[in-house]
Specification:
This protein has 8 helices and 8 strands; from the N terminus they run H-H-E-H-H-E-H-E-H-E-E-E-E-E-H-H. The chain is of the alpha/beta class. Strands 2-1-3-4-5-6-8-7 form an 8-stranded mixed beta sheet, covered by helices on one side. Residues about 70 and about 215-235 have low confidence and may be disordered. The protein has a single domain (about 30-260), classed as Aspartate Aminotransferase, domain 2. A hairpin with a 7-residue loop joins strand 5 (about 185-190) and strand 6 (about 200). Helices cover about 30% and strands about 15% of the residues.
């Protein structure tokens, strides 16, 4: 929606052709756009998230492409994936090799953005590939991703479902990347330890500009943050508050890096 809104113009309304074609799942109302992800990534098991998941074949077997025009199983989209850097350890003995490995991955990202047959409008990445094999990359690699996505008008989505809420020694793992102010991820997703599933963002233009453009059981609890509503009440608020109070008492986030060494 954000990409098409930019193309259409902020104050432009939908055309009659867009309104009729989207009801038939055809362009221009249903445009052919893509989200890029990384090999061995895991982002979920439904619709777009399954199309961005590449950690285990069992998650994706018997998924169908929309062109099959069937109504069985889980649809998936032919979106691009690029290799995630495979670092060699120990890190201090392989700095040159790892630097070249990350640079090769960054070059492939930009090449794919420019050459993919449909516009790549977003890139999603985990700070640490968890289900995909405990795969790490350096802060410099992620800063490179941010630079590429900004230059090419691609949204950067950081999936912090596994790494968020203090697992790496900061509340969000991407805090360790050293991003300058204004270069923050466009969207950060969270779940699990947050006792909720949702996302936050910095750019108000990511908010749908018309009613019903995003119709769900999610509700806003603060500027730019959405949390799930379950059983008629926000259990997430209670869970998050308890977690934060407990962390203040035990300093568990600050103590995390003392217990094991992370390359980020």
């Amino acid at each position: 929606m954000y990409h098409r809104r930019k193309e259409r113009g902020e104050d432009k309304d939908f055309t009659a052709e867009e309104l009729t074609s989207c009801m038939k799942n055809e362009p221009p109302g249903s445009p052919d756009l893509a989200i890029m992800s990384f090999g061995k990534a895991f982002h979920g098991r439904m619709f777009g998230t399954l199309s961005s998941t590449h950690s285990k074949a069992i998650h994706k077997l018997d998924s169908i492409f929309p062109s099959n025009r069937t109504h069985e199983l889980v649809p998936s989209f032919p979106w691009p994936q690029v290799p995630f850097p495979q670092l060699k350890y120990p890190l201090e003995d392989n700095m040159g090799i790892n630097r070249r490995e990350e640079q090769k991955a960054l070059e492939q990202v930009e090449k794919t953005i420019k050459e993919w047959p449909s516009p790549v409008v977003a890139l999603i990445v985990e700070p640490i590939q968890s289900e995909g094999g405990d795969n790490h990359a350096s802060p410099a690699f992620f800063r490179g991703l941010r630079d590429i996505t900004k230059r090419n008008g691609v949204l950067l989505i950081v999936d912090e479902v596994q790494t968020g809420v203090g697992s790496t020694g900061t509340f969000w793992a991407h805090e360790k990347w050293g991003l300058a102010k204004g270069d923050e991820p466009d969207i950060v997703t969270f779940s699990k330890k947050f006792q909720a599933s949702g996302w936050y963002f910095h750019n108000d233009k990511l908010i749908p500009n018309k009613p019903y453009r995003q119709f769900n059981t999610w509700y806003p609890t603060s500027r730019g943050m959405y949390l799930t509503w379950q059983d008629g009440r926000s259990s997430s608020r209670v869970g998050c508050s308890s977690y934060l109070r407990r962390n203040q008492e035990t300093r568990s986030i600050e103590e995390c890096p003392r217990n094991w060494r992370l390359p980020i």
